[in-house]
Design a protein that fits this description.
It catalyses: a uridine in RNA = a pseudouridine in RNA. The chain is α+β, with helices and mostly antiparallel strands. It is built from eight helices and 16 strands. The chain has a domain at about 1-65: Structural Genomics Hypothetical 15.5 Kd Protein In mrcA-pckA Intergenic Region, Chain A (Roll), CATH 3.10.290.
Length: about 280
């Protein structure tokens, strides 16, 4: 059993996704069994919550044992976490903040596994935010993409427009009103003609940049249900994008100068065998 207090108006599903990863994984079952109580009353629906509501989840011990992250590195200033696919960045932050002072620095899409770094005090937060803003943090991703790439290495340039209402982005080859320039560098590591393992470096970190840019050039990330290839996703049985934030390299100063040049690596690899929709993790 886990108990939480709602901090603002939102649906039960959104609240669960943002504060309790294990409850999020088990959410369909919890609703079917009416194993969630809001202010003492059982519910089987995705009801609207209000500030101050008390939510209790009657998750099983097995459900509660499902991990949301692994700690890759931790000291008095920072924590580097390896997030499991299916976990909201906000939920990971919430879990860490329950253990002590924690500051949110950057995020990953829910269904992207891999590395996130958090600050544990204000000085570390300030330096990490500066490092990200000044592009002194290099993020390298691995993605399993559909198709055979014409070029083994390339630097892609495009223009990204956010569609807030549709909760997605669109990529164009030429500038247009409201668009932000994006740069995505890739290197094909291996492939069999139908699938390619690709290393990707972001030179501009925009919403859904990798997923949208790969789809734009005709090589969508396998399992991507928003920008991907529905037919090929169905053929391979993938329902979660096979994308991992694999490496995090720091160029830090000031309070974090001792971490300058440090590189961290995720244990996750984007592989088809990990794409079972009932599995909350990618190994």
């Amino acid at each position: 059993m886990k108990k939480f207090t709602v901090n603002e108006k939102q649906t039960l599903k959104t609240f669960t996704d943002n504060v309790y990863p294990q409850g999020s994984f088990a959410f369909p079952r919890l609703l079917r069994a009416r194993d969630i109580r809001v202010n003492g009353k059982k519910t089987g629906e995705n009801i609207l919550l209000r500030e101050g509501d008390e939510v209790v989840y009657y998750t099983t011990l097995r459900e509660e044992s499902v991990p949301a992250y692994e700690t890759v590195y931790e000291d008095e200033n920072v924590l580097v976490a390896d997030k499991y696919a299916g976990v909201n960045s906000e939920a990971l932050y919430f879990a860490l903040s329950q253990k002590g002072e924690t500051y949110f620095i950057h995020r990953l899409d829910r269904n992207t596994a891999g590395l996130m770094i958090f600050a544990k005090n204000k000085r570390a937060e300030a330096e990490l935010l500066r490092a990200f803003r000044e592009r002194r943090v290099q993020k390298i991703y691995l993605a399993l993409c559909f198709g055979k790439f014409a070029k083994g290495v390339d630097m892609l340039c495009g223009y990204l427009v956010k569609d807030e209402k549709a909760a997605r982005v669109r990529v164009y080859s030429k500038p247009r009103e409201g668009a932000e320039k994006i740069e995505t560098e890739y290197r094909v590591l291996n492939g069999d003609g139908e699938l390619s393992m690709v290393e990707i470096v972001l030179h501009s970190g925009k919403t859904h940049q990798i997923r949208a840019h790969m789809a734009f050039i005709g090589h969508p990330v396998a399992g991507d249900e928003k920008y991907g290839d529905e037919a090929r996703n169905k053929k391979y049985g993938v329902k979660r994008q096979l994308l991992v934030a694999k490496t995090l390299r720091l160029q830090t100063k000031g309070a974090l100068a001792y971490l300058n040049g440090q590189s961290f690596s995720s244990r996750f690899v984007p592989e088809l065998k990990n794409s079972c929709p009932n599995a909350p993790k990618m190994i």
